[in-house]
Amino acid sequence: MTTNETRPPVAPGEPAPDFTLPAVDRSETVSLADYRGQSPLFLALMIGLWCPFCRRAIAQMGPMESRLKQIGVETLGVVATTPENARLYFKYRPTRLRLASDPELSTHRAFRVPKPAPTPEFMSALEKARINPFGDLPEPMPIMKVAEAVAKSDAYVETPTDKAEMERQWPQLKAQFLIDRDGIVRWANVECATEGPAGMGKFPSVEEIAAVARKLPR
User: Fold this and answer.
1) Under DSSP, is residue 116 helix (H, G, I), strand (E, B) or coil?
2) Closest C-alpha to 27, from 97, 101, 79
3) DSSP H helical ranges for the chain
4) Which domain holds residue 177?
5) pTM of the predicted model as reported, rounded to 2 decimal places
6) In this structure, is residue 66 part of a structural domain?
7) Is the residue at 34 inside a domain?
8) Position 148 in a domain
9) Best CA proximity match to 167, nearest among 180, 158, 176
């Protein structure tokens, strides 16, 4: 997979890049420094709300957040839209998940999350891929069919903001990182890293994250 990032994503054992971003749920900022020395952090880097897989991941992270907190791990989602657009969305779809806004994808770049080049080979691989990212389909389906099905089940109506963000962001990948209280990445999951396009939209289970978190130093 050809990408616009020449270096691999931040890997376990590396320091997590610092970031400071506007919070979605309040008029302040949220940063990695807020957690350093306090608690491990499960960090999920998503793209804009136009992405049906990101909207579904946010919904999954709500109950996941409380389970991780029970073992001392905080959770933060970074969504690539403006604070105002995110607040409008979550006014109608409330979440207790702590979220930060990063419409320019600066955190994705800092963590070196790949953005594939839309080459003919990449586009062909996307068209051929069959996915079942949430395990709720009778069989794997083409990526666009799954995206359409999720959007329909969400009753989500695309906005001009979504369209503009999609044109700017696509095909940026997503990633999740578990960062210890000293700011060191201890686990990483980058979309499509192991399965290629067949891994599109997959999100790690709370059991997988918790298994790693329980091994972190207290």
Assistant:
1) strand
2) 101
3) 52-70, 83-92, 106-110, 120-128, 143-154, 160-169, 206-213
4) 20-118+158-213
5) 0.94
6) yes
7) yes
8) no
9) 158
**Structural tokens at position 216:** 């972190």
Question: Which helix (H) or strand (E) is 44 found in, with range?
Answer: strand 41-45
Task: State the CATH number of the domain containing residue 24.
Answer: 3.40.30.10
Q: What is the per-residue pLDDT for 156?
A: 87
Phi, psi of 21 (to 5 degrees): -135, 155
Tokens 């029970």 map to which residue?
Answer: 70
Query: Rg of the chain's alpha carbons, rounded to an integer?
Result: 17
Start-to-end Cα distance in the chain: 38
Whole-angstrom distance, CA of residue 106 vs CA of residue 144: 27
What domain count does the chain have?
A: 1
Q: How many CB atoms lie within 10 A of CB 140?
A: 14
**Which pLDDT score is estimated for 172?**
97
In angstroms, rounded to a whole number, what is the distance separating the alpha carbons of residues 56 and 35? 25
Q: Is the pLDDT of residue 177 over 90?
A: yes
Inside any domain, residue 11: no
Query: Minimal CA–CA distance to 54: which of 205, 167, 202, 177?
Result: 202
CA angle 186, 191, 194 (to 5 degrees): 85
pLDDT, the chain, mean: 93
Query: Long-range contacts made by residues 117-126, C-beta under 8 angstroms, separation at least 24?
Result: 117/2, 117/3, 117/4, 118/171, 119/2, 121/2, 122/1, 122/2, 122/171, 125/1, 125/196, 125/197, 126/171, 126/197, 126/200
| Interval 78-89: pLDDT, tens | 999 999 999 999
pLDDT of residue 25: 87
